[in-house]
Amino acid sequence: MPPTPLVLLSARLLDPVTGAFLPHTALALSGGRIRALGDDREMRALADTSTTVIDLKGAVVTPGLVDGHLHPVSGAELTQGLDLSGCADLDAVRDALAREVSGLAPGAWLHGWGLDPNVFGDRPVGTAAIGPVLDGVPALLQMFDAHSMLASPRALELAGVDGPRTFDQAAEVVCDAAGRPTGLLLEDAACELVERAAPRPTRAERRDQLAGALREMAATGLTGGHAMDAGGESLALYAELDEAGELPMRLRVAPWCQPGTDAEGLRALIEGQGAGGALWRTSGVKLFMDGTIDNGTAWLERPDCHGESTHAFWPDPAVYTHIVGELHRAGVPTATHAIGDAAVRHVLDSVEKARAVGGGANGSPRHRVEHIETVPDDTLRRFAELDVIASMQPTHCCDFTRADHTDNWSRRLGEERAARAWRCRDLWDSGATVVLGSDWPIAPYPPLGVMAGARHRRPSRDLSQDPHGPEQALTALEALQGMTVNAARAAGEEHEAGRLAVGHRADLTVFAESPLGVAATDLPELPVLLTVLDGGTTHRAASM
To answer: Coiled-coil stretches, from where to where (predicted)?
Structure first.
């Protein structure tokens, strides 16, 4: 028999399917898999002198938690700047920027992230509202949605951006009536105009930033993530960490397919499927059907209160439909960012057309819709009918909207559509597979916070506030399933992941108590005692 490198004793093994504890009290791990389940005596018998034996003293073991949507590479770089996510008004933003400016070397760029558009209230989002604090300072301030940013006048000058631009996809350099840029850049194509002028971290810095971020994720109980990264170095960085034995999470990576992708580019995406290493692989393709509601670039069936969010991200949505069909026939699953109701409907229509033509290579791939922030009733049932995964980020609802609908997102949509915010409960009850994630760096990655938000739907900074759409809350067990069994199904890995079963992956998360028995508002503080990936520990609390 192969060696057994790790044995866990005196455990309570929580089945995420039933919510009950298994009759076993111990498990042995070997070859990256769960070798055996049994009692302490039986598992001790499988250990030898090379085995690490850990007495869990009654701690609770679940399958490893998986974030269904995150951006490790871009997030690791973006979050190196000034964190503005805690600023609740413009005065707080100005104060934070002033402190940062005071420590900058002459000519250095200021990078900020997490800026909430709600701080602008009824004022237009632009650098004019921030005042003179950025005078002469090249600065890029990412809005919280990472689909827009503010560029200071000096940054625009250095980038040579002095007026409107035309793009091949939905993007905009927002300008005033005189044609002068306000500083607001919408979507990647516009943001990249200025980002190219700013200094970039070195390859070594990017590698270290990524490794550090992934280690911190593992310490919160994450064993895996569905990575939606598209940066040119993303795959190379994952490979480098994996080969060095420094990849502390199992990653399923979906490269991007943008408008303008030709037949050769599509062929490269198809041929690249399955590439990877021991702990990461390319599986699926990420597409965008719209932008965000907060910056007016979502695709809605009716315009928002500003007359915006009326167009798809793809200039010709029929081209998107064609590409989904080609990927489906090649057996490649897609994950499409679709926030507005029109965007979600178009994705579902496209999947339906692709499936009608016939199954893909090696069976029909399982497609996904990412975000799904507002949809009408007639859309719900189609997820289950088409076997389309509903990928949701409940903390976005918690932290970026308000129960009284006074936030920017709700005001743009109006009462009818704001009342359909993040319909996790309705999608679940309609039979859809709902997988939960953070969309980090848009929202914090600790999985207990994501699960808690799915249950309480309250602002994490002030849990005394009313929940937004409490009728859409998930139960404790459903929230756990959203990051275990459902995450496995979303990846097509239900045969080997998401369960505590012999032969399944040895990816485990160990808690001081059962996450099902802790109140939703207290769940983020539940101690994570041990994180196990591929049979080895990536996090071990001092008490263990």
So the answer is: none
Nearest CA-CA partner of 516 in 8, 11, 18: 18
**Rounded to an integer, what distance in angstroms lies between the CA atom of residue 104 and that of residue 243?**
37
Q: Which domain holds residue 320?
A: 284-474
pTM of the full predicted structure?
0.92
Which one, of 538, 406, 394, lies nearest residue 454 by Cα?
394
Please tell me the predicted confidence (pLDDT) of residue 222: 98
Query: At 463, which CATH number?
Result: 3.20.20.140
Please report which confidence band the pLDDT of residue 362 belongs to, taking 50, 70 and 90 as the band edges: low
State the pLDDT confidence band at 361, using cuts at 50, 70 and 90.
low
Q: How many angstroms separate the Cα of 481 from the Cα of each of 67, 129, 248, 251? A: 12, 44, 22, 19
Cα 198 from Cα 33, distance rounded (Å): 45
The answer to whether the CB of 518 falls within 8 A of the CB of 511 is: no
Q: Is residue 252 part of a domain?
A: no
Half-sphere exposure of 260 (CA within 13 A, CB side): 7
The Cα 477–Cα 488 span in angstroms is: 16
Total count of domains within the chain: 2
Q: What burial letters (b/e) apply to 372-404, b meaning 16+ CB within 10 Å?
A: bbbbeeebbebbbebbbbbbbbbbbbbbbbbbe
- The β-bridge partners of 227 are 70, 253
Tell me the pLDDT tens digit for each residue of 256-287: 999 999 999 999 999 999 999 999 999 999 99
Run of H or E including 157: helix 153-159
pLDDT tens string 237-251: 999 999 999 999 999
Q: How far apart are CA 287 and CA 201, in angstroms?
A: 27
